[in-house]
């Protein structure tokens, strides 16, 4: 078979089961693609030996005829997931040299299902960023370019390496994590599908923590069907994560009928932002028309607290990060700064954390420390948690009124150039304006590529679903994907 | 509310992150930009709102209060920047 790396997960699974290819062949094709794609900066720790071992084991299992869907499928794993004996640094210098003695639940479930890990993927440091520019490994680069320009564009972030790797066919699919949009925003900027499940669907055990009440893992794939297949393999109850939901995971793929007749799709007026590019506006209304043509009913809705989502997020996420990142002290794992004569334990902490964390992580840890400090806890942190309840209530009210899913843009713009000077940190935060509400409310959300802008860059729409109803959400996304017929691929320059 | 240089220094100290004196003014400026953005939350009346605790009501699971793990000193120490004689080693804490 030619172009093995371009296969979707579903196509590869079917070909493997029919004996038209082997996992070793697929894996070798992906490893070769990775070797040739250094310019994308997507894969930061390559694991070819592990990959080929697992591929051979998968082929044995496939030959025995009882292999699950992910068996033999080559995937990339975001650097945020702890993988046993393989570097897991969260894109940070402070975890330099750390080799986890254990495997995260999600990557372990994929491994048990027979998926083949090709390597670890680039990301913003501790998942804090929207452009993959805060990574200690350097930038991941979007395989897409604007028109005839050779300027390097961001693949988005924080799961920028995952997005670039899937879009460039270096792996068939990848894991991502999403705290404020880190699966959906990079998926949209690279023309792939990204699913953030309901909070609690995927175990957080073994995933390096950023903001524990918001973090959620999910699949980044070439198609909605693949997101259904890989998503189901990643989800499920885990006694090691007390916030993991003890609910059965349905067969999402079997729910992809494409039939959305009678479904009610909400169009929230608050997502029509001032200064939103006309192209995004057009994409959004075209997407709505597609769902309507497929038999859904469109309804204008209001989510009045939307504009408070980003400010609430920038209290809650840094606060939780400052607690979670307190563990990086130069004692138990990772980096310890060189010390001067006479330095005590406090100097060790302060120097280690100053040198080990990059500027954005330092800034957020300190903002979090401030909003949690004595005298400000109620004014900032508790207020933000209450605003979060209001944002969640907005969604509950529209779902109670009969809305099945909500359609919004995924990002306020197409991929932008790497290396832009940004003097105000708040400006970068605006990238998450359409996605962050979903994390605060704990809902499932999915980004689906639906068009190209006038420079030929991919644009995506977001669908937001009811809690725990990823199956229904995926089916609506499937209908949108079928109608949009997005098949464009970036021309290979790397 | 505006954060001055002294407050920035205090926050850095609390966070155990060394910040050079020359960088404190810029840091205070960044804090002020972010906190200015957060100020919008004060527009809302949240007096009667309960803070959100979970997506859907969920009972926190309980487990038996028993030892399930242990006896792996080597693994625990394997990633330490400085481990000696079965301990994590740090600079002198007590004079």
Automatic annotation (TrEMBL), chain B:
Top EC class, one word: ligase
Self-association and partners: Heterotrimer of A, B and C subunits.
Coiled coil: none
Native source species: Rhodophyticola porphyridii
Protein name as annotated: Aspartyl/glutamyl-tRNA(Asn/Gln) amidotransferase subunit C
Gene designation: gatC
Similarity section: Belongs to the GatC family.
Keyword Ligase: yes
Highest taxon above the source species: Bacteria
UniProt key word 4Fe-4S: no
